[in-house]
Specification:
heterodimer; A: mainly beta; 1 helix; B: alpha+beta; seven-stranded mixed β-sheet; 35% helix; elongated
Chain lengths: 135, 305
């Protein structure tokens, strides 16, 4: 039997060894996350949470069911592809915090029919990130 | 032409911890020329070069011009020495007349040791890096941006000279920070810049000739020289070739569209540059549309809605 002091030292040693040999994966969350506040009926509201360091520019894409259009949006969308029923926002000079995009659509949508996507480049690494947003 | 005080130039340069290479780069001459100017008492040089020299030494031109009073005193001294003639020579210490070779050897040893000490310990080494972001292509006659990102890795104030040699088919339009000089003969761009930042971004806008031949490759090369430390010129890394083609510079993959990744790159790289119009409205219009095509007659892009 090992005395408590020896077993304590062994545990510390084993722990240190384990930390040294195991690759430690530090999870860094997405710099931008998004969710729908409302995704049914005629009004859709998406909320974006921007972390620091904020990407300089963010593209928000809203996919809508076929035959649906956007009556108006705040902020106004920058691009609308009628074939794909897809609206895009180019958000510039983005700062950490919360951003909301609200849109009024022609017709009505059921929950689960809308989906979105966020695209941005990591300001530190320059890698492109694509985040899918579901209701 | 003006006569400058070589001694004063050397003393000023040494007091500012400048190297001959730094001055040579700032003035646009060789280090041999700087050495020659410093070693002659009152060398006669071009006024244009004297102005650049004074600027690099952070003083006015008048301060390095020949000092008449000193010269006249010196000339008086020379005359006196001529009068005393041989008597003056006889007053030299005996060692100078008996063992001149020994004295010369000792002086050489001291100078060489000093040079070695200076080269190994006298300077703090600064690892400066510079990277050029250059679009892969540009259309004839249309402007394109070039970004040079510099990392000094140095805490504290630093003076640097950035020199960029652009292809002769290119004309620089504007820059941020503004160019310090553009060489009239070679078209080389030069910035003399003082900073306490560890990262500095230099950006300039240039254009190709409207009649530039398609598929022609244009070359870019540059160096960065730091005033402190061992003053070797560091080459700017990154792309150095740009092709003239019927494509927008922001359309990196050449598919005649500006996609999301390309517009994000434009905003990320150029969004922080102020005061330079690099055609962001047209880039957004192309991104909003379905693509573009090059119209050879009007030398413009036609955007497809």
């Amino acid at each position: 039997m090992l005395n408590p002091k020896t077993s304590g030292n062994l545990a510390v040693f084993a722990g240190t060894l384990l930390l040294a040999i195991l690759p430690i994966k530090v999870y860094a969350g997405d710099l931008v996350s998004a969710r729908y506040i409302t995704s049914e009926g005629q009004k859709i509201v998406m909320e974006l949470e921007i972390q620091s360091p904020a990407p300089n520019t963010v593209i928000v894409i809203q996919h809508l069911p076929k035959g649906t259009g956007i009556k108006q949006s705040d902020p106004p969308f920058d691009k609308y592809n009628t074939k794909r029923c897809e609206a895009k926002w180019l958000l510039k000079k983005v700062k950490p915090g919360t951003l909301r995009i609200s849109m009024e659509i022609t017709g009505s949508v059921k929950s689960g029919e809308v989906k979105g996507e966020i695209r941005y480049k990591d300001p530190l690494t320059g890698t492109m990130s694509r985040i899918h947003v579901g209701p | 032409m003006v006569r400058i005080n070589g001694d004063k130039v050397r003393k000023l340069r040494e007091s500012l911890e400048l190297t001959q290479l730094y001055l040579a780069t700032a003035v646009g001459v060789t280090t041999d020329t700087i050495s020659r100017w410093e070693n002659r008492k009152y060398p006669t040089i071009k006024k244009e070069n004297a102005l650049k020299l004074a600027e690099a030494l952070e003083i006015s031109l008048e301060e390095i011009l020949e000092d008449h009073e000193i010269e006249s005193q010196d000339e008086g001294l020379k005359e006196k020495q001529q009068e005393t003639g041989k008597a003056g020579e006889s007053r030299l210490p005996r060692i100078f007349t008996i063992r001149p070779l020994l004295v010369l050897t000792l002086i050489c040893v001291v100078i060489i040791s000093g040079a070695f000490w200076w080269s190994f310990f006298g300077h703090q080494k600064i690892n400066i890096t510079a990277y050029r972001f250059l679009p892969p292509h540009t259309a004839p006659g249309l402007p394109f941006p070039v970004i040079i990102s510099v990392e000094t890795g140095h805490v504290g104030s630093l003076s640097l000279i950035l020199r960029e040699s652009v292809s002769q088919e290119c004309t620089p339009i504007e820059a941020d920070p503004d160019f310090t000089a553009i060489d009239e003969k070679t078209g080389d761009l030069k910035w003399i810049y003082q900073t306490d930042m560890q990262k500095i971004t230099f950006c300039y806008l240039a254009t190709t000739e409207p009649g530039a031949r398609l598929e022609k490759e244009l070359q870019f090369e540059g160096t960065i020289t730091v005033r402190k430390g061992r003053s070797t010129a560091t080459r700017i890394k990154g792309p150095n070739t740009l092709q003239v083609s019927p494509l927008h510079w922001a359309d990196a993959n050449g598919d005649k569209k500006i996609d999301d990744e390309e517009i994000l790159t434009v905003y990320d790289e150029l969004g922080k540059i102020k005061g330079i119009n690099f055609g962001i409205e047209q880039i957004e219009d192309i991104w909003s549309g379905t693509g573009y095509r090059w119209d050879e007659k009007t030398k413009k892009f036609i955007i497809m809605p």
